[in-house]
Amino acid sequence: MLLTVNGNPVFVHTGGRDINPARPAIVLIHGAGMDHSVWSLQSRYLAHHGRSVLAVDLPGHGRSGGEPLGSIAAIADWVVALLDAAGLERATLIGHSMGALVALDAAARYGAHHGGRVEAVALLGVAERMPVHPDLLAAAHAGEQSAIEMVIGWGHGPRGHGGAQGGGCPTPGLALIPGGRRLMASVRPGVLGVDLAACNDYGQGADAAAAVVCPALFLLGALDKMTPAKAGRSLAARVKTSQVVVLPQTGHMVMTEAPDAVLETLTSFLSLRRG
Amino acid sequence: MAGAKFLKFDTQSLHAGQKPDPATGARAVPIHLTSSYVFSDVDQAAALFNLERPGHIYSRISNPTVAVLEERLATLEGGVGAVCTASGQAALTLAVMTLMGTGGHIVASSSIYGGSRNLLAYTLPRFGITTSFVHPRDLDGIRAAIRPETRLVFGEVLGNPGLEVLDVPKVAAIAHEAGIPLLIDSTFTTPYLCRPFEHGADLVMHSCTKWLGGHGTAIGGVVIDGGHFDWEASDKFPTLTEPYAGYHGIDFAEEYGPAAFIARARAEGLRDFGACMSPMNAFQILQGVETLPLRMKCHIHNTRKIVCFLEGELNAEKGAVAWVSYPELVDHPDHALASRLLPQGAGSIISFGIRGNGEGGSREAGRRFIESLTLFSHLANVGDAKSLVIHPASTTHAQLDAAALAAAGVGEDMIRLSIGLEDCADLIDDLKQALRAATKG
Q: Which parts of the sequence belong to the AB hydrolase-1 domain (chain A) (predicted)?
């Protein structure tokens, strides 16, 4: 469905069910250079288990209009504006990578002590800092294919790359790395560079974590090269209300590499029931 | 900064899509001969049926052995996903049925496999889907044949049996100008020789029966989604961009993004048309794919040697060879294109004309030639490890009238060879004696 946020059209995938304000809401926030479809193995399930789902295309991404916002704080503010546009008082935020920093920042600034817009957060593939190598940043700003190759290559664990002990996409017949490559190739020119710069520049992770008072799930890949599980754990240690789940044999793309484990963890965290 | 590393083609031929079986440690891909799969609970069952989570329900829709082959072929082609089918014909049918319904129109190369031609020319019109055939070198003709209701452009990298090389980048550009996808049958080249997605194609299909399986044992097909095509740029593909009642209003493009086509092909096409690949066949084709790079090198090596031999016969006084067609020959009309698209080799099919010196002309000479061969097997297949021979005008393309035969580049004197993996000297000896027999009539 289309909403209007700050004057721009925003696309929200609702998982096959309309948004119902009577149901607890979940906002799914994608990572750099991606869109709502990275949540295709979670969004439909959540929507059929008692939640109103808003798997959003951030500004400048996917089917949404506008320009990419350029900072984690700006995107966090925008997510709250999205709740306003959808007529929702509060929501659980589930974010991946850049989207996880957005959820963290929003939970710190819009949590129980500040309007209570954020009820809980699930942070997938996250670390306090997400420094981006200057070569990758330059390649992304220049729109070079090598930037996509680096993100996709480092972003996937053995289920994407294959090899003697890996291989085997959980979704029959799909190939994770070509799929990720195509998704990122469809993003508008320049957007990946803006997103990666936003990750690189975000330095408030520690303070934000300390300010979070809502339930916070950290869902980490044991073989994540981009946001190593060790870094995710140390960030989680700063959140009083955190719980940590580390998924074995999983890289940074936890939602596509380990969709069942992600769903089972979210089901437990959110106390989901079919309906 | 070091770039990200990806496994190379030869490695992926052996490993993509598979890891040792977690239950038994089996290194080879297990053959999962099971029709169905136990649900862990009612919620998981409901979620699987509603496409809320991935997994297997029933082997008509997906199967763990077949899924390994699908992921491996998708990886080798560079596609986002694949669906294996009961045959190559089933793959073409699945692609067409996923994209269009009654009123749909296809623009196809006139030089394609006879079975594909039959499907498009004679069978699909009964279901309201029509096809215009255009010579693969006639790019203006392809453009002109596209109508408002056209939903697909279809061709083969190497025409069958004329060995015309399709200018995939230019034909893709023509299709994309019209807002429609290009489906390439890449059976003759395999991803080892050509990866059509890198040249602009949107969908790729194979008869896995041929070089992918490589041993003439198992029938199978595959359709692979490149994930490039923007289905939502027009209203031409409602199967992918509008709610589908068959899964509670799911919108495949919205739900699956780049994998929209292949998701619908499985969720609807395999579920309802049911032309799935058996796990036994998938296993046998996987054995072939594991050695695809090695076999293709040998196919190409032998083919080049035999082309040289036939060229020698062509130039010999009173030789039985009237002409030789192979895209690497400098006098082949597509020589330059082949060197760009197929730098590692232009496949292992050779067409040549047999000279009808004696009674009965070239048709009779062809009969004597084929019946005199001792190593080459006379049968209707290509891409076997063993060398094969056929006379297309009387077999694979027998349904075509004289005009269609000419349009498909099939002359009555044409012999098609599929070069296998035998010692090349033995193959040349066999050809020599059969050519002598052919000229004695």
A: 26-264
